Amino acid sequence: MSGPSEWPTDASHYALIGKIGQGAFASVWGARTKEESSRDCAVKVLNLDHVDSNLAEIRLEVQAMRLSSHPNVLACHTAFVQKTDLWLVTQIMRKGSSLHSLQSARRRYRDENKGCRMEDHILYIFHETLLGLKYIHDNGQIHRDIKAGNILLDGNGDVRIADFGVSGWLEQAGSKQDRAKTFVGTPCWMAPEVMEQIHGYDYRADIWSLGITALELAKGYAPYAKYPPMKVLILTIQEDPPNLDSYDEEDEGDDALDQLVVDEEWSSSFRSLVDTCLQKNPARRPTTQELLQSKHLNSLNDEAKRDKRREAIRKEVCDLVQDVGTESAESNSANQLPGNTPVSIVLSQQDESRPQGTTWVFADGSQVLASSTNNAATVDDVMNDLDQFGMQTGGEHYARGAEGEEAIDINEECRVKEDDGEEDDLNKFMDDFELNTGGENFKRL
Ligand SMILES: Nc1ncnc2c1ncn2[C@@H]1O[C@H](COP(=O)(O)OP(=O)(O)OP(=O)(O)O)[C@@H](O)[C@H]1O
């Protein structure tokens, strides 16, 4: 393989062939170097307006990314600034995201009236991802954005984790000093402790996201994906962890999701694997090593069995899916459901001008202070008000207006007048909320 320094660091040396996909902060392209012996690659173009780390920091991190080498982590060849964009040149994974591949293959089987059972393929992807994640965790890092859109498949069935390090560069809300307490992520995959930011979080947040990813691959979309980000945050904090059955009831009759939903039988071992990852108390979640040794995945540690699974996914999935990044390929964007919009979270306790608590900052810059006052609301009140708010602000993404817009206090927005006679419900909701959040947030003033 060529050394990383040999990759050109000027955009004019690359030909962009076809768009692979569009994320919230970046577009990704299939590309080729314009050298005599041209090399294929993917180029992720991040608009610098959304990049808040300074370039020296990014350079150092890219250096680290280039040095990190694992068969299940996407290799980064080089990175450079081009006008107002940051270009990240990486390996290209021909089948794109694992979700895209599984869903495309499922559609093919369905069209041909053939049965297909994806559980073994999902377990294989899960196991490969765990190996990459173990490498990341063993190096003292947290990925922070594990989801099927960042788990990529190549034509031969290889699996690699993408976007390692990138989420840390994205636009952070709050001042530089707050940054250690700031987090950017996609709500549907975010662990409850990351949303609350009470006791901080560690690598076990990635294990939660991996559990959500297993659900996503199994069902075709992440739990709560149909809801706007703020509602996802509240449901994740309040409700029992999702599982393979829970969102069937939730989403029944939803036309948009009916297109995506997958109806398959799942083994009890797979169900229990998902449940193990999705424990709200992070201390109860297993480490990558424990998962690799668990009865659910143990057999895949055998090289011969792994090779067999790789061959099976190549034949039964990869071969049915068109390569991404070619002129004719369709864009491989993750479905743009509301809950897939990134949100950043800031702990605002140090800022005396604001009430204590966590601030959730949405991709469009709108903010919600999850703090408390004497008034409280029932869950339904909160949800109704969020819906209202969504409507007023243009819907799905709660696109609040321009810069300088005031942050929205959930309680301010959801305040229910005492004479509505709902005080008891409201108090109960706040008590539950305090309980769920460990009592530090949502403190009554
Ligand atoms: N190196 C690559 N090879 C093949 N496909 C890729 C590569 N990198 C990214 N993709 C695909 O390109 C699409 C866009 O990726 P991108 O990382 O910009 O957005 P995302 O992860 O879907 O969402 P966001 O980053 O906004 O949370 C995704 O479907 C992803 O799977």
Average pLDDT rating: 75
Class per helix and strand makeup: alpha+beta
Q: Please summarize the sheet with the most strands.
A: 5 strands, antiparallel
Strand composition percent: 5-15%
- Major sheet strand order: 1-2-3-5-4
Order of helices and strands: EEEHEEHHEEEHHHHHHHHEEEHEHH
Strand tally:
12
Helix content bin: 25-40%
Task: Provide a descriptive summary of the structure in words.
Pfam families: Pkinase (PF00069). By secondary structure, this protein is of the alpha+beta class. It is 34% helix and 14% strand. It has 14 helices and twelve strands. A five-stranded antiparallel sheet has the order 1-2-3-5-4, with helices on one face. Strands 8-9-10-11-12 form a five-stranded mixed sheet. It has a two-stranded antiparallel ribbon with strand order 6-7. Helix 3 (119-138) packs antiparallel against helix 5 (204-219) and helix 5 (204-219) packs antiparallel against helix 9. The longest helix is centred in the N-terminal third of the chain and has 20 residues, at 119-138. It starts with 13 loop residues before the first strand and ends in a 9-residue tail after the last helix. The structure holds adenosine-5'-triphosphate (ATP). Adenosine-5'-triphosphate binds at residues 20-21, 23-26, 28, 42, 44, 74, 90-93, 96-97, 100, 149-150, 152, 162-163, 186, 324, 332-334, 342.
